[in-house]
Specification:
Layout: H1 3-23, E1 54-58, H2 77-83, E2 87-93, E3 98-101, E4 104-109, H3 110-123, E5 129-135, H4 143-151, E6 157-158, H5 166-169, E7 173-177, E8 185-189, H6 201-221, E9 225-229, H7 245-264, E10 273-277, H8 282-289
Parallel strand pairs: 1-2, 1-10, 2-5, 5-7, 6-7, 7-8, 8-9, 9-10
Antiparallel strand pairs: 2-3, 3-4
């Protein structure tokens, strides 16, 4: 290979690396662009149903500790909110409602989560934040009653199963429910049991595409609040430790960005409900949000 060929290869590698950095983030520091408007929901019509939006979310939203097996995000809850995330997936256990990922405590509790979200919503009153609580052991069966006691008589939470319009829930925390937790909007998950187990990246991409197509069908009618995941892990499969959350996100996030970019070119543009991601970058989050901006 000649000198020019080597230079071209280096440039292509750098470009590929740069592209990955734009859509994948594992840095702790959030750098917002100048003049960025944190409150992206303020332009939405009050009559818009929550179920007809495309909402950026994080899977295992506060799984910040525990090493490669457990970590799924890099930014704090506050920074995720600032970056545009509006759906948070939380594993909650114990009398103190601690946030967990598997057996690993994530050094915070649901009480602290609610406090942080409320502080954010005090500053950005037109936003809506969706929370999914997944009870886990110990005291799994007590989590719902403990949450109910915590939010009793609160005026800034939505716990009804019906799907609200934006105008009904601005400035509020909207709980979403599935399986053992019965507070809030009922979720329609496109993932099937075991879809989080990944042994082949291309197969995972095909599954995500199928899930997003299903979500788009539900979103068009507003019949259900859809939830799709781009996250996954090879742990627990014959692939072992080869595709842990961060490694997979490095592969999946660039693909997801390009897939959404292609979908955005359609007329009319689709909507996808909630897309829950691991290690999303600011640019990927903004790509998701962009579907809600109608010309």
């Amino acid at each position: 290979m000649g000198v020019h060929g080597k230079i071209l290869c280096i440039l292509m590698l750098l470009l590929h690396k740069s592209s990955q950095q734009e859509v994948f983030n594992d840095g702790k520091t959030l750098n917002l662009p100048p003049n960025y408007k944190i409150g992206w929901m303020e332009t939405l019509d009050n009559e818009t149903s929550i179920s007809t939006l495309t909402i950026p979310g994080t899977h295992e939203a506060l799984a910040l500790y525990g090493g490669p097996l457990a970590e799924c995000q890099a930014w704090s809850l506050e920074d995720q909110l600032k970056a545009g995330i509006r759906y948070f997936d939380l594993r909650v256990s114990g009398y103190k409602l601690n946030i967990m990922h598997g057996p690993i405590p994530q050094r915070t509790s649901l009480s602290e989560v609610l406090s942080t979200v409320r502080t954010f919503l005090t500053r950005f009153r037109n936003e809506v934040v969706l929370l999914r609580v997944k009870p886990v052991s110990p005291m799994e069966g007590k989590v719902q009653s403990l949450v109910e006691n915590m939010i009793r008589n609160a005026k800034d939470v939505w716990v009804k199963p019906s799907i609200p319009k934006i105008g009904e829930v601005r400035g509020k925390i909207v709980f979403v429910q599935k399986n053992s937790f019965k507070l809030g909007i009922i979720l329609s998950e496109t993932d099937e049991n075991g879809d989080y187990k990944v042994t082949n990246v291309k197969d995972k991409e095909r599954k995500i595409q199928q899930h997003l197509e299903e979500a788009a069908s539900q979103c068009r009618t507003g019949s259900a609040l859809s939830l799709s995941y781009s996250s996954g892990t090879s742990f627990g499969t014959y692939m072992g430790f080869s595709l842990l959350p961060k490694t997979l996100a490095k592969e999946i996030n660039p693909w997801l960005y390009e897939h959404l970019a292609n979908e955005f070119e359609k007329n009319p543009k689709p909507c996808f409900g909630i897309i829950a991601m691991d290690f999303p970058s600011f640019d990927l989050i903004q790509k998701v949000i962009k579907f809600n901006r109608h010309a």
